[in-house]
Amino acid sequence: MSQAAPDISQKISTQTTTSKSLSDQHKQNNFREDLEGEAPEQVRISKDKKTMTLIWSDGAEKSISASELRDNCRSAQSVKLRITNLAVPAPKDLAIKDVKPIGSYGINIVFSDDFDRGIYPWGYLQKIVNETKETNQS
Q1: 47 part of a folded domain
Q2: By CB count within 10 A, which of 21, 45, 71, 109 is most buried?
Q3: What is the CATH number of the domain that holds 89?
Q4: What pLDDT digit, counting tens, does each position of 97-125 carry?
Q5: In a domain, 104, yes or no
Q6: How many domains does the chain have?
Q7: Rounded to an integer, what distance in angstroms lies between the CA atom of residue 91 and that of residue 100?
Q8: 4 assigned to some structural domain
Q9: Which run of H or of E encompasses 78?
Q10: Would you say residue 24 lies in a domain?
Q11: For residues 43 and 54, what is the distance between their CA atoms, to the nearest angstrom?
Q12: DSSP 3-state assignment of 110?
């Protein structure tokens, strides 16, 4: 009698689910951290509208350009373009047209080209401002 080959599809399915669950947990943790960020005391837009400055309760001031904000946008469209290596860096002359509060956890930024799809939670803004500064200082 020949023995039937063992059915490994169940095992593969379980491993895939486990990997996916871990990836989803990582994404949830990152998203949770972004939402748990402290709101700044003030959000200032420069006169030329090309820079946003965040002023925190400890007196720290962090600035970031409109183009850097746009390059770090997490809208579905922006993320898809980055994943597929089709993203084009934002123009250096991009400006901030408007800033709208999104609940108590962040802001929506409208850019001079009328792109308005990104939501920036306070924790995420803290993270990208700090990463941008580290990159620029290197």
Answers
A1: yes
A2: 109
A3: 3.30.2020.30
A4: 999 999 999 999 999 999 999 899 999 99
A5: yes
A6: 1
A7: 22
A8: no
A9: helix 76-83
A10: yes
A11: 5
A12: strand
For 42-76, how does the pLDDT look when each residue is reduced to its tens digit (9 = 90+)?
999 999 999 999 999 999 999 999 999 999 999 99
Residue listed under structure tokens 């993270």? 127
DSSP secondary-structure letter at 108?
E
- Bridge partners, 45 (sequence order): 52
Distance, CA of 112 to CA of 94 (rounded, Å): 6
Distance CA 4, CA 61 (A): 68
Q: Decide: helix, strand or coil at residue 87.
A: coil
Burial of 57 (0-12, 13-18, 19+ CB in 10 A): exposed
- Strand residues in the chain grouped as ranges (E): 42-45, 51-55, 61-65, 96-102, 106-111, 119-121
Block residue for tokens 């469209």: 77
Cα 30 from chain centre? 10
